[in-house]
# Entry
Amino acid sequence: MSGTDDFSGFEVIRAAMEVEKNGHRFYAAMVEKSHTQLARELFAQLAQDEVGHLRTLENLATTYEDGAFWEGEEEFLPYLRRFNDKEVFPSTEQVAAVLVSKEGDIRALELAIDAEEKFAAFFQTATLNARDPEGKKAFAWLAAEEGRHAAILKERKAKILGH
# Structure
């Protein structure tokens, strides 16, 4: 297996489910630790979006099930495990460190923007490199969703800063 080039649609969906689970944990932690109502509302909305994405992905997985399971499971599972909290989403310790003051909400937004942009870029690159048509389509959907989250975060940051 060469990177994500040969991932089927099902494999993309399965990997994305891990991303969404970790994203939900990240945003739920942000809700609890944020100082402003505006930030809490935003992070709660994003946490719910991640749950919605997970449900969408679960439904999409059924459309890819015929011949979906990849034979090289021992190679695929380490890829899935890459999507842990410390890989792209900031760790609990990093979140706690930036949220010690009201300015921390802005820094937390910046951490979230960075994570969403990294995922959007990763999925966009995977879209370009994917050879499997279903995998390409699934990666493109994920890139768009992560890009949408980054845009929401940037808009909210500007609103909080009064821009």
Notes: Residues 9-161 form a domain with the Ferritin fold (CATH 1.20.1260.10). The mean pLDDT is 76.
